Every structure is written in C-alpha cells, then in structure tokens.
Amino acid sequence: MAEFLPELRRAVPRLGEGLLTTVEATVLGAALALLLAYTLGLLSRSARLPVRGAVRVVVEFFRGTSLYVQLFWLFFALPMVGFRLEPLVCGVLALGLNFGAYGSEVVRGAVTAVPRAQTEAAIALGMGPVLRLRRVVLPQAHALMVAPFKNLLVQLLKATPLLSLVTVPDLTFQIDQLRSSTGATAASYLLLLGLYFGMAVVLSLLMNALERAAKARLGQEGGT
Amino acid sequence: MWDGEAARAALPTVLEGFGVTLVATVLAFAVAMVMGLVLALAQRGGPAWLALPVRGAAGFVRSTPLLVQLFAAWVLIPGLDAPTLGVLVLGVHYATYLSEVYRTGIDAVPKGQWEACTALSLPRRRVWRAVVLPQAVRNVLPPLGNYAVSMFKETPLLSVITVHEMVHEANTFGSTHFAYLESFTLAAAVFLLASWPTSVLIRRLEARLAH
Q1: For the segment B130-147, what is each residue's pLDDT rounded down to a tens digit?
Q2: Taken in order A41, A43, A47, A51, is the CA torsion positive or negative?
Q3: The domain at B4-209 falls in which architecture?
Q4: In angstroms, rounded to a whole number, what is the distance separating the alpha carbons of residues B98 and B91?
Q5: Which terminus of chain B has fewer Cβ atoms in its 10 Å neighbourhood, N or C?
Q6: Under an 8 A CB cutoff, do A80 and B180 touch?
Q7: DSSP state, residue A133
Q8: B108-125 mean pLDDT
Q9: Is the overall model pTM greater than 0.95, yes or no?
Q10: Per-domain residue ranges for chain B?
Q11: Of A61, A81, A158, Cβ closest to residue B1
C-alpha cells in the first residue's frame, strides 16, 4: 500500500490513455447507436409491411443475442470467414449495434406517443411528411426520448470494460496492469469503480441538461 | 467457412453451458428480487438515517460496471467458490435496478389507498402486506420480466471469474477445435431462441395488465 501512491503517480499517463480509449469507445459506440436508433425507429413506423418486418427482425436479433456474444463473435468468429477488424472497431460495432437496437424502441415509442392530432393539424396546414416530422413530431418526441436515452447511455458506458476482454487497452485494462504491478488490489479496483461512477454522474448531468433544454423548447414544465 | 461437423460437435458443450447459464440466472434473479424489495422498503418506508445511505450505496452499485464489480469481489472476498460469488454479485447488481422498479410500482399505488388505510387505522404492517404490495405487484411484473431477460443476457460475464457458463464453454470449444465461428454462432442462436419468446410473452402480459 505504501508503494501504491508513487506507482499511481507514475502510471498517470497510461491511465490517461486508458481513460481516453474508454471515452472514445463510449462516444463512438453511442454515436453509432443513436444513428441506428433513429434509422430503425423511424423505419419501424413505415407503411410498408416488408420494411417493418425487416426492421423487426434486425432489432430482435441484436436485442436477443447478448452483447457479449456479439462482441466475441466479431472478435473471434469473424476472422474465420476472412474479416479481421481492429479490437476497438469490434467493440464500437458491438456497442453500437446492440444499443442501437434498444434505442430504436425508444425512438419508436416516443414518436408513437406524440398525439395523432399533432400530425393531423400539420397535414391540415399543408406540411409535407419531412417537414411534419422535423418541425412537429420530432421536437415533441425528443423531450420524451431523453430520459430513456440517459439510461441506455449509462448502460453503454458500463458495458465498455468488456472491451478489455478483447485486448483493447481501455481504462479497465490499464488499472488491471497497475493492480498487478503494485499488488494493491483494493485500492486499484476502488479507483476504477470511482472513475466509472464519476463518468456516469457526468453523463447523467449532461443528459438532464439536454432534457431541460428539449422541454424548454416546447414551453413545458421542467424547462428553464 | 461454416463446418457442420464442428457445429454438431460443439452443440452438446454449448447446451451444457446453457444449463449453467439458466440456473445462474434463476438463482441470481431470486437474490435480486428479495434484496431489491429490502432496498426499496428501506428507502421508502425506513427512517432517514437508513434511507439516505441505502440510496447512495444502491446508486453507486447501479452506476458502476458489473464486470469490475465481479473482478473486485473475486479477488477481495475469499472463501466463496466462483458460481456462488457470481450469483451473489449479479444478484446484488440487479437488486439495485429492481429496487427502483419496486419504488416506482409502490409510488404508482393511488394516494387514496394510503388515506383509506389511515382512516381505518390499519397497523403499518397490514397496510404494506394487505393493501400496498398486492397492488404494486401488478405494476412491477412486466419490468421484472424485462430485467430477468436482460440478466440472462448478462450472465456470460460470469465467465471472467471462471464460471463455466455458455459463452465460456463456446470460447473453450472454439479455441481447442479452432471453431469459433460455429461455437459462438450456436451460443448466439441459443440466446436468441430463449430470450425472444420470453420477451414476446412479457409484452403480452404487459398488454393484458394494462386493462
């Protein structure tokens, strides 16, 4: 324990790199997930049955097969059919596909929850489908989406230590190195848990601010 | 490419792992349901000196990664075998989710029910057992089901503390027979086949309880 603090000071640059990798995986994974969530969520309300069916299959597949299996499949099985991806790319893809599937349900639910009269009023005003979605439906749906997205984002952050299992040198990997070089197991893991807790709190505060902003735009209660 | 022979050879191993996964999920979920209720009652009905620390601790466990909690428990808590420890850590982690589910379920019981209990001067224990909890159960069943499915899909994490669940078995088979494609694809198929019908059932239950 006496050696832990000097060792920790020496390890700071490596821990910083690990932290950066974790943040990178979280941000890229979340960006991919958001893109997929909107695409799949809006397509799942398509009037065409084949489109809805295809979206349903994709969403159920990525929700149903476990993030861990998806990650390991991309890392271990995909090279066997001739595609070798960088470990970090595997991680970002797995996070994005899995959380994108969950997020698409959030988008679908929020868009469905906007009262039909809003759409009808927009049609009556002669708005086209794109304008209707952009100026009437989505702004109202956004305010409903932020809270569930906050939960998903924290879940995604909490899933990033998995990347250390497929050799990505993330924060968990670097602190594990520190642990084996100092033998200070309790201190190392406490530090790691504390850092993740801090990141989760920062993300929650950011999302709360977003929710207030989305509600304020609509002039709703809870906005500032 | 896909080797049918290897897939057939991997199937018994993967299914054996599936048995372990299923048992671990059931036991861990039982832990989570009981402990989640204790956490919820401590926060909802307990005195402030108890409620605040419980809320803080539950929030901390809920906001930190299960994988790190497993690693930490594995090296810091001696004397427990891997499956027991895994079930406990998984159970405690999900208890912090379920306590929120219970809390929302309890809060959704109309205020008039509480007022009626006061008017009838029912004892506190009876208020909870005979009036509030039976109504709250209705509110919490669908979310409980969803959390059970998501816990099922998180059990592969137990492999990091050497529990021989399905993904661990698939990984071992893949490395010894150089058949990752077959073993992991089978594991994915088993997850899908088990969790998808369950989600459909939960959605039906949700629709029925909504009326």
Answers
A1: 999 888 888 898 899 999
A2: negative
A3: Orthogonal Bundle (1.10)
A4: 10
A5: C
A6: yes
A7: I
A8: 93
A9: no
A10: 4-209
A11: A81
Phi-psi region of A209 (alpha: psi -120 to 50; beta: other; left: phi over 0): alpha
Residue-range domains of chain A with CATH: 4-217 (1.10.3720.10)
Instruction: State the smallest CA–CA distance between residue B124 and chain A in angstroms.
Output: 34
Check A161 against B68: CB less than 8 A apart: yes
Query: DSSP letters along B57-126, please?
Result: HHHHHHHS-HHHHHHHHHHHSTT--HHHHHHHHHHHHHHHHHHHHHHHHHHTS-HHHHHHHHHTT--HHH
Give residue-wise pLDDT tens across range A168-206: 999 999 999 999 888 888 999 999 999 999 999 999 999
Cα gap B80→B70, rounded to integer Å = 13
B56 in A contact zone (CB under 8 Å):
no
Q: Which tokens is B120 given?
A: 């009838």
Q: Which residue of A has its CA nearest to B74?
A: A185
Instruction: Kindly report the nearest CA distance between residue B127 and chain A, in angstroms.
Output: 32
